[in-house]
Amino acid sequence: MGKFSALMIIIAFFLLFVIQTLEVVNGQCYGSLAGNSSYAQNRQNLFSTLSNKVLTHGGFYNASFGQYPNKVYALGLCARGYEPKACSNCVEKLTFETQKNCPTTMDSFVWGSDEEERVSCLVRSSNHSFGNLELEPPVIGVSPDHIGPLINITLFMLQWEYTVNKTLQAATKANTSVAHKYYSASHAEFTAFPNVYMLMQCTPDITSHDCNQCLEACLKYFREQFRGRTGGMISFPSCFFRWDLYTFHNAFVNVTRFPALPIHQDKEISTPDKKGRSMLWVIITIIVVLTFINVLVFIGFYKVNARKRKINNEKNVGGAEYSDSDGQFMLRYDLGMILSATDDFSSENKLGQGGFGTVYKGKLLNGKDIAVKRLARGSEGGIEFKNEVSLLTRLQHKNLVKLLGFCNEGDEEILVYEFVPHSSLDRFIFDEGKRSLLTWEVRFKIIEGIARGLVYLHEDSQLKIIHRDLKASNILLDAEMNPKVADFGTARLFDTDETRAETKRIAGTRGYMAPEYLNHGQISAKSDVYSFGVVLLELISGQRNNSFGEGIAAFAWKRWSEGKPEVIIDPLLVENPSVQIIKLIQTGLLCVQEDATKRPTMSSVMVWLGSETITIPSPKAPAFTESYSQSEDGTMSMSIVFTELSSR
């Protein structure tokens, strides 16, 4: 069994290595020909603004232009999880492809994907309105690779069908999103391959029943004609289906991994006849028996070698074992490995200190640098420990700090993170010597990255999370100065349909906390929006929030009201585009408005950051003003115990 499993893994990785990506653009020109050039000109006029319209309408837009018989209908759609710039580029590319390849054809559709930008989009045009199911013509792209002769094709197809059924159920269950009404992305583990990814989407202008019919038509091609391939793409004018052995879209950071063939769920699997069900039970029985034997062997081996492993833990490069909590796998580090990596928490390795503990730099025996947060003994840091472990193991985004593992031996509670070489943002923006390194291009990248991370937390991850302590010292900068939101010890987990909550225990930093939260304990995504606005204004001014007696929001508002917003701009940025910077001051003031309902969402902020032509609202007065007393280290924080998340 061991040799067979090893062989399967080798085959899987070999296929992943040689797999060829599908065509980036899959489209079709069809229907009647235009009688004259007026149709093409009307389409060009409509396409010229389509990408911007898609962004401003949340990812989907349809419109018409001209008069019969040369009236043109067009729509654009970006798959969920898109980044504004990538979505805009994708739509613009497809409008160009349509005009190039279908110069005189009235009907066209093209589903495209950019592998580098990890975005998918659709552009359609026609001389008739949309809204009805269209199943012709199909556009097909299939991987040239086959599953392989050593892989059980029967078991593979059973797992494939199970994953397809789950994805289809989710895709055809209409949700509240207008743009992504019918949409689902799934990530499964198969016996033969470590990962399988699927994406299904329908245009939001058809019914749930029609969406199901369209996607079933896509699946029919794989069931009947392309059985045994390692991936493929099928699209109609009304829907799109793709699956592969690697992530090809940003949406896959938002899905939870699930087994494709769970034990005791065979009733959900499409088995064509009794022979298939019998084969399934035989396979399940073999897997259960072999797993049970392996577990017994592992337990015996673990007990025999426990003492030896503890003494010689340095021989294990990872120094870790896997622990399962709520279905999530986390890396547990031995305390001996942590002590060795940090030189017994030596002062030379100390990176900084927070309210709940101290952070040290460490180096594992394999040479990998890590950051180790040692929570203070006897403090309330245990709540922070549970928060970060339970949340960060289920969050994966390039603008969030990555939790590598943890250690909780004896009275030690330790969190192990990826090492971010440039430390925190406050050590650059508030340092007279280092601030010059933050050019406007770098500052804009940091602002955009923070916003992107918050959009993921609020809207795009499998969890809905309010950070509650966003500030410059909790933004880490990697080697390329990309920001990573850190410190989730006081974060609040929301239900997916929950928009606001209340607490009697306030956690965060004064000056960055929204007034409704500080004064009344009201928590929402708009609480983070307020904090983001303060950080944005700090980045533009190069000054701490508490450097202004009334607060940076009030100071910026007064200068804005006087018609002198440029006064707030860091003198180091005088040679940079003031129009763009002033627009961001306006964005920051919108984020810190007193009425939380008037503040924008972070997804709206992302749209504003990605467009130079969108007109944004005029801001109102900031939430409140107050004087700040500054401590010796230049900070003023209020960290109060947070106890609610563990019970959720």
From TrEMBL:
Give GO MF terms, alphabetically.
Answer: ATP binding; protein serine/threonine kinase activity
A matching Pfam family: Stress-antifung
Q: Mind telling me which CDD domains this protein's record contains?
A: Gnk2-like, STKc_IRAK
* Stretch forming the signal peptide: 1-27
Q: Where in the cell is it found?
A: Membrane
Q: Which residues hold ATP?
A: 373
- Give the residue spans that cross the bilayer: 279-302
* Annotated membrane topology: Single-pass membrane protein
Give the main location: membrane
Q: Does the keyword Chloroplast apply?
A: no
Domain Protein kinase, residue spans:
345-609
Q: Which SMART domains match?
A: S_TKc
Which keywords does the record carry? ATP-binding, Glycoprotein, Kinase, Membrane, Nucleotide-binding, Phosphoprotein, Receptor, Repeat, Serine/threonine-protein kinase, Signal, Transferase, Transmembrane, Transmembrane helix
- What name does UniProt use for this protein? Uncharacterized protein
Q: Report domain Gnk2-homologous positions.
A: 21-130, 142-248
Q: For this UniProt entry, what's an example GO CC term?
A: membrane
